[in-house]
Amino acid sequence: MPSLRWRIAVMTAALVLVSIFLLASILILAFEERNENLTEQIVNQQLEHSMSLWQRAPELASPNTPHMQLYHQVRGKSAPGLPPYLANLAVGHHEIFDGDVEYHVSVRDDASGRFILAYDVRTSEELYRFLVFMTIFIAALVTLVTLFAVYLLAKRLTRHLETLATSIDQAQGHYARPGMERELLVVAQALDAHEARQTAQLERESAFSANLSHELRTPLSSIRSDAELVAEIPDLPPAARRRAERIIATADRITSLASSLLALARAQSPGDRQAVALAPTLLEIWVSLLPAYTDKNGHGITRKLDLEVPASAMVDADPALLRLVLRNLLDNALRYTPDAQVRCELKGNTLSVLDRGQGFLPEAIPFVFDRFYHSGNHISFGIGLALVKHIADASGWQVSASNVEGGGGKVSIDFGPALHLD
User: Fold this and answer.
1) Which terminus, N or C, of the chain has the lesser number of Cβ atoms within 10 Å?
2) Residue 378: is its pLDDT beyond 50?
3) 167 within some domain
4) 308 has which bridge partners?
5) What gap in Å lies between CA 319 and CA 293, rounded to an integer?
6) What predicted TM-score, i.e. pTM, was given to this entire model?
7) For residues 256 and 87, what is the distance between their CA atoms, to the nearest angstrom?
């Protein structure tokens, strides 16, 4: 992930670098133009001075510098030592290159002939190149200094941002702290207000779920008791007995759902742990679930459970919560399996419940354990697997969901050290 500090530092350094180069370019261009004008002025002044001295003392007319050469050409004759590239220049100021060497040349005429003054500007060019080099060196140095200075400054200024992020990660609450910068304080106060609203909403939802589950239990108990009494009537027609048994199974299912709601509402955590035999508990829950999957004529789905769990497998867990987890897993498998071919297998410390339904849609697998998840593809989940995830997390177990090769879905629980073989 890119660092905000480095991005600020790099952007600032880049801005400084661009500013330096813009300013340096303007100064260098101004220097070059000024140097050209100054060179032309020096050459013209020296030529005028040499021409005036030539009339009185020709031996004193030559410039006193090794970078200037004066040539005097009498009309119709060639000047001694005059290079060919200077011989035919018109009167005025010229810039001539002899290989890599640049000359500024001034040409004048008077009554005695033609005067040619050539000025070797290599010294000026070296000064110009040195100026460009120093500009680049200073720009690079200032950019590096700016980069690290701004990074350290940004690190100091964003220190409270890291503290805020740590507080959010650890769910400490009360994010607004004294000494925060104004902009960061606004974010912290918004987080505090959002957490307060979320907490209040969760409390209202928890209170509603708890009250609802309590309100459901009393009428459900009455319905179940009446159905049991009906089922025990002698000479009761078989169809009526089957309906009574279905009522009992449905009441148990709704009671289990109410318990699930209450567990979620209370964010229930495990109580006293006991060693629970896994295979008998699975078989008992399986038998209790089957009556709910019969039609009004008593025709049920194929009742088959492949139980590949050793009889000696024990789980150290809260018995009530473990039963709730296993019941939700088996109920989920029965609901989505047309012929109820459900397999429970134990590999290592992991219990897997496999059905023979259509399996999970690939895009829905990440949301299998989300409460009341719904997408536009008609994918929806209730609270059964969400409760499984909640209890597993509270108990230190790991849950996962996947598809089975050949068709069907699989939900697995890794009990870790809580599972052992006696």
Assistant:
1) N
2) no
3) no
4) 345
5) 25
6) 0.46
7) 114
Handedness of CA 50, 53, 58, 61 (dihedral sign): negative
Instruction: Tell me the helix, strand and coil percentages in the chain, rounded to 5.
Output: 55, 20, 25
**Same domain for 117 and 21?**
yes
Please, what's the b/e burial string for 186-208 (b: 16 or more CB within 10 A of its CB; e: otherwise)?
eebeebeeeeeeeeeeeeeebee
Give the pLDDT confidence of 292-302 residue by residue, as tens digits: 776 545 555 55
Residues 43 and 138 both lie in one domain: yes
Alpha-carbon 361 to chain mean position: 26
Structural domain includes residue 172 = no
Q: Write out the residue range of the structural domain in which residue 309 sits.
A: 273-421
Q: Are residues 229 and 308 in the same domain?
A: no
How do residues 357-370 score in pLDDT, each as one tens digit?
A: 888 878 778 888 87
Domain count, the chain: 3
| Residue 111 within any structural domain of the chain | yes
Q: Over the stretch 177-188, which tens digit does the pLDDT of each residue have?
A: 776 667 667 777
CA distances from 294 to 39, 255, 275 (A): 109, 19, 33
Band (310; pLDDT cuts 50, 70, 90):
very high
Please list, in sequence order, all residues whose beta carbon lies within 8 angstroms of the beta carbon of residue 215, skipping any fewer than 6 positions away.
none
Domain contains 97: yes
Residues 211 and 249 reside in one and the same domain: yes
